[in-house]
Structure formats: C-alpha cells, structure tokens
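Recap quiz, item 2
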Amino acid sequence: MPLGFPYLGTFTHVMESIARGMNRDDLILPNEPTYRTKQLGSRHASEFVCTPFKIILGSLLEVIERGATQVIGTVHVDFCRLGYYAPLWKLILEDLGYTGDIICLNWFDKPDFFRNFKKLTGDLNAIQAFQAFRIGWIKNRYFDLVEKLLYSYGATEISKGSAKAVADKLNRTIVHTMGERNVRKLPRLIKETFKEEVEVDEKADPLKVIIMGELYAVIEPAINLYVMRKLNDLGVVAYTPITFRRWIDLGYRLNFFKRKQHDIAIKKAKPYLGHRLGGKARESIGCTIYYKEKGWDGLIHLYPFTCMPEIISRSILPQVSKDYDMPVLSLVVDEHTGEAGFQTRVEAFVDLLERKRNENDKNKVK
Amino acid sequence: MKEKGNNYFLGVDVGSISTNLAVINQTQDLIESVYIRTEGKPVDSVQRGIKIMQEKLGNNLEITGAGSTGSARQLTGVIVGADIVKNEITAHALASLDLNPEVQTVMEIGGQDSKIIIIRNGIVVDFAMNTVCAAGTGSFLDMQASRLDIPIEDFGDLALQSDNAVSIAGRCTVFAESDMIHKQQLGHPAKDIIKGLCEALARNYLNNVGKGKDIKPPIMFQGGVAANAGMRESFEKYLEYEIMIPENYDVMGAIGAAILAKEEMNKRPRNTSFYGWDIPEMDFKTTGFECDGCPNICEIVEIRKNEQLVARWGSRCGKWDLTDEEAAFI
C-alpha cells in the first residue's frame, strides 16, 4: 500500500524520515504546493474554511492521484476548528470516492496515536517503531537548524540562492542519514557546510525579524507567499520559533532542565491574554515581548483569513507593540497570488525598521 | 530652461487608477506635475504622462535622477529607467514630511489601497493598509458615481449639500451597494445617499485601517479620494480634528518618489539611468506566457524596449529571471 502524506514545509522531511526509518520504501512524496494544489483544495473544500485546510487537502488529493492508498492526516486537537481538520478531510475524501486508508494520528490520545502509528510500520515491533519515531524527532531538530541557518545566511549571502541550494542538499542528507550515531553528528556537518559553502557579506549588520502567527501559515511558504525569502531578499534575517518540534520532540518536552521558549512566551502574554484560545494567539503576543527583550527589530504576524484565534491576538498586538516599542506588522494570507500588496507591506515595514534603527543609533551617539 | 548647477528629479507613481508624475528641483519645490488615468494600461499611461510632462517643461530640462513608486513600480522602473524603486508608503510619508515636518498622521486613500501612516518626530513609527478587501477605496466611489451617473468630480460637493445623511453599511461594498439601491428605491435624494456613503466609508476606514492607531493632529489627507470634499467633512466629523489637504494631494506619491530619487543620488552620486524624454517614442512591448515546467504554471511577463529584452519576471523558481549576462547587456 503506497503511503502518502501532505506537504507541510520542513515537516514533510520529518515525515519522510520517520517513514523511511520504519522500512517503508513505498512512499509517494508530495510535491511543493503549486497553483494547481491550491485550486484542487479550494474546489473541494468549504468556501469559508481557513486556507491551510484547502492547501493540505489539495496536497492530499495530489498524492492520492499519484497512487497513494494510505494517507496520513494529522489530528491536532485545539481550541479552534483546527481540531476538525482531519475528520473533515476524511469525509471529503470519502465523498470523492477514495477507498484507501486514512490514518489519523491523534497526538492528544497517546495510546491511540501509537496504535495507529504501528499500522504504518512494515514489519517492526513496537520498540523498533518507537525508535524510528524517536530518530524522527531528533532529526526534526536538525531540519529546524537548517531552516534557521538558511534564513540567516540568506540575508547576507553574496550570490543569491546559494543558501537555499545548500539547505536543500542538507535536508536530503538528513533524511537519508541512518543510525543514531550518524544522526548525532549532523549538527556539526550542517554548521560547517553553511560556513564553507555560503559566501556572506561579513560587514553587513542585517535587521532581524521574527515571524509568528498561525502554525500552518508560518511553516508553509506556499501559504505565506514565501515571506521569509522575501525578507532575505531585502537583506533581513528571518526566524520563526514555530515548528512541529514542540509536539513530537518528546526528548525536549520531557527535559525538565530546559526552559521552553513557548512556555516563557505564554507566561509573558499573561497580562494581555490569560486564556487558551487555540492557534498561537498567546504565543504571538508573548513572543513580541520575548524577542524585543532579546534585541530583535520587529515581528511579522501572519494569519489566514478567518482565523479566529489570530484575529483576537491581532487586535491585542497594537497595544503590546506600543507598550514595548516593538514594531509589529499583521498580514492576512489567503489564496491570492497577487503579491504586489504583500510585497509593498513587507518592504514598507523593513523601511520603517531601518529608519528606526538609524534614529536609535543617532541617539546613542549623542 | 536648464539652469546651471540646478538638478531636477522625476518621480513616477503608477497606481491602479491614476498615473502621476512630478518633477522637483534641488530644494524639493514642485516644478510641474501630471495626473492622468491609468486606464488599465500602465506602460501606455507612463509614456503618455512623460509626453505631457515634456510638453509642459520643454525639451531642455535635464533629469538627474528618477524614482518610481505605486503598485506598478517595478514595471515603471523598467520603462523610465528609474534609479530607485520604492514602495508607496515610504514615498507618501516623505512627501508629507517635506510639506509639513510637524505632521503626525497621514491618511491616504487611493484606487485600490487605503493606508494610514503614523509619524512621530519625523519618523514613520507605524503604518497600516487595508487587509484583503478594497472596500472604501477610490475604485468603489468611482463605480458608484458612474452608476448614479454623477461625474466623480461633483460627487463630494453634492454630499456637502445634504444635511440628512441616510445610513449605509460600510463594511463591505456589496452590502453598501445593496443599501444604496434600497434607499434610492425608497425615494431618498441622491445627495443624501452620497453623504451617507461618505460617512460609511470614513467609519469603515477609521475602524478597519485605523484600528488601534493613535491618530493625532496635524492630519494630512491625500490620494485621489482627498478631492472628495464629502469624505473630508466626514473624517472631520468623526475625528474632531481639522484635516489638511495638501495642494498637490493627488501627486504626493510621485513627489515622494522624486524626493527618494534625490536622496539616492546624493547618497550614491552617479549618472542617472533615466532613459530621457524620448520614452514616448520608444516601443515597449510586454508579452506574457505560461511556463509549463511544473504545475505552478507561473505567468511570466517579458518586457522589450525597441525589441531588446529589458526585464522578465513572474517565475517562482527564478528560472526565467534575467541571467547576469543578459542583465549586463542592458
């Protein structure tokens, strides 16, 4: 039974690594979401649902079209409609006449998660399956590292596109590295490869911008119109603390000695928003404060049109921005391909940050 | 007309509805400006605009720097050979600050975009633009004017004649239009409906674009919609501040682009890449095709000047971007 899964930013590589670790070679790898993916998704989804739903549905339909008869839909129980994603995909796919398996990995019901997960393995026993999953979450750390370096080297690279090429190459290397000892050696390799192969402008002192907002809108470049690459093209370092790592990386989660960045952020958001709303509402607010204290220049807040939790945080953010003197730009993403407006806002935001920094420098001299 | 030691800078602002050009001198005084409609053909309208500008100025005036802005800034930059291509928020802020260094709020409503720029101590500290929807912008007013068969120039003055605004939903233009038709069929006079519409749009702007922003005077209102006296009155009613409308409210973007060009040339002195006043005689051709390399089906646009390739863009993967050799040739 060929196994397929939707495309989801760097998480695609994590899924691929786990599947390969479980001796599955019959993989149908998803392609990066294209115009066609968007169209397929919006054709079959309800009109008013969030964009990520549509794009992931389109991506699922594409892998099914290419022959997958077993697909993974992740269930992420949350306080907004995100929790209904997988059941809805299931209904829509069934209506369209898909007869294969749809495996919902429900992370919030751990026994059920591993029972379903076991279905995906070929001939492994439970311990081996867990080990494969564990290697997956360790690799996820390194995919995140590649992502982080990509968007920091990308800002000052001399030959445009060199960082991206290195990142693509490294992602393939990580997927195909087997055995825990080899995997543990990866971070050094990643750092060294970037250092050696990407030529950067040493003198540049780039602005640094944090990307926050709704999970899917942040991690899938096809949804956010490649906002991080756009920032890089303007010579700005971009970074997002949002990854899937915080859910699947049990080693990190159970490490009591580590202070988790998102826990700190949620604590900092408390005076503004004390309840859990779903999405990344609290974190968006908390990160504005957290990264201001860490010396970042600005924050771009992304959310899909009609996303309830982020609309709430969007309304609170101007106040936070004022209180902490941290510029925030809220951007709505939807199916549109007209990037002109998007580009204008991002450019103007970078201009604002630049002028602000110049002004601060002047004051320092005085 | 050329004076020794005096430099002139051209700014071109091509938006969805209008194309504006402005020429300023070294001391940033406006020499001449042109405001024409884009009519969906930005290349044509830039050429037309330059021709009109040339007729106004005479042939001898030499341009030392050119800047482009507006939603078609990239395309315009290629056509006129701009030295700097910048977004319209920065351009508008600079033009307003040049006019009045004290200004703290700039409201700009154009054809498709409405923006608010918050300035403190001469620095842009915050800005916002309308999100996904173009409700309350110039193109909607334009559409309603032509539906009611009133010239857009008279629209605002008509609103001033009314002292009984009807209530109209301002959140969405579709709702607004059905409200307007309903009121019109009930027999309300056109001027009351128009005044109601202006108030609805002002409310919508302040609650949507201006949400959470600290609007402090002096407030400057510019862009094509600033010509509408009804809109100004509605803003004054809700904000309870006096609103300034600059003399050249319709070409502020172009003035900003010209100032940017001047700053750029002062920062990095060089010869301008401006093509010169014979742009109207040049032959610009844009051709589009769909790349079938992957399912993205990117729409690629090629721009040729006198049969020579000058720009190509639109691909996601960068496959169609000009190679270094091609770029060097230009």
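Chain B has three domains: 8-93+253-281, 101-246, 284-329.
The mean pLDDT of chain B is 86.
End of item.
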